Amino acid sequence: MRRAELLFLLVAAASPAPIQAGGLGAEFLTIFPDARTVALGGAGVALDDLDANTYYNPANIAFGPRFAGTWTHTKWLWNKMSVDHAGAAYRPDERLGFATNVQYMQLGLFEVTNERGEFIGAYRWYDVAPSISAACRVVPTLSTGLTAKAIYSYIAPAWAWPGAQRNRDAFTIAFDAGVQYRPQDALTMGFAVANLGPNLRYDSTDGDFLPRVARVGFAVRPPIPGPVSATVTGELSRDLFPLAEWRDLYHWGTGLELEFARLAFVRLGYLHHDKDGWRGWTWGVGLDHRGVRLDVGVDSGIYQWTSSRNVRFQLSGRL
């Protein structure tokens, strides 16, 4: 067996969803990309201050700053795998907002050897999804948003697999849409649907389902006197694709963020994604100085089937 085939089987065994045709494709889009929201149990659909991040709800950029940018990096599950997310946003006026995001996941460099153990070559397995978003405040308290994204998955080149006629890769497009309603400064409610589009086809089969999902949630900022402020957020999501037996139809998360003198942040969350895999506590911290913020988010506790430490580092800025 080629070494590449063995690595492929090991990665498939570690994945919480099948990767063969007819299973769940583009699963990297289910990985929460940023440090702040992962520390809040993944409950981000109603957060209206995520800078340039449109992953949870594209409507949030209409409530955001004039200029914003963000970048997050994490080593995911094992040392060779990593997930990166970057975004930039611009609001030309009080009503409109535009953003571009990209999410990238790579599973490391795979070396291919023949039956005699001789090195043939190496390749990198990766997934990427660039996107553009637009949002509009229909009225001062209500914003709507839309995202269009391209999804490309590259598993292996044809030369790495005996008998393969083409690269093991696939491409599709998808759309997200969302609304946010902020009747008062202390309350925001959000709803969004994500990854609506054709299946990801690696060959002539029906392909793999995109991780289509609907989210609804809230963010409450209770009035607290003094230099401390708080945000309580919660979210309920529902999968919109055929489910595997191990996967729950509904998922939920909640979190608490404490802000001290607009300089430091402490966050605690809980995520229940499914009964057999992703569930547990999340946490994080952050520092802000004149619009530049560094956040750290940890969700190692939600993975029941691995002891890997997943730490996200996020750098954001706003004007």
List keywords for this structure.
single chain, 319 residues, mainly beta, Porin, 14-stranded antiparallel barrel, 5% helix, disordered N terminus
Biggest pleated-sheet summary = 14 strands, antiparallel, barrel
User: Between the first and last Cα atoms, what is the distance in angstroms?
Assistant: 55 Å
Using the alpha-carbon principal axes, give the shape.
Answer: globular
From the 3D structure, determine the CATH topology: Porin
Which value, in Å, is the CA radius of gyration? Answer: 20 Å
Question: Could you walk me through the main structural features you see in this protein, from its secondary elements to its overall organization?
Answer:
This protein has helices spanning 3-14, 35-38; strands at 67-75, 82-90, 96-113, 119-139, 142-156, 168-184, 187-196, 213-220, 228-239, 250-260, 264-272, 279-289, 292-298, 311-318. It has 319 residues and is mainly β. The chain has a single domain, classed as Beta Barrel (Porin). It has a 14-stranded antiparallel beta barrel with strand order 1-2-3-4-5-6-7-8-9-10-11-12-13-14. The N and C termini lie far apart (55 Å).
Q: Secondary structure elements and their pairing?
A:
Layout: H1 3-14, H2 35-38, E1 67-75, E2 82-90, E3 96-113, E4 119-139, E5 142-156, E6 168-184, E7 187-196, E8 213-220, E9 228-239, E10 250-260, E11 264-272, E12 279-289, E13 292-298, E14 311-318
Antiparallel strand pairs: 1-2, 1-14, 2-3, 3-4, 4-5, 5-6, 6-7, 7-8, 8-9, 9-10, 10-11, 11-12, 12-13, 13-14
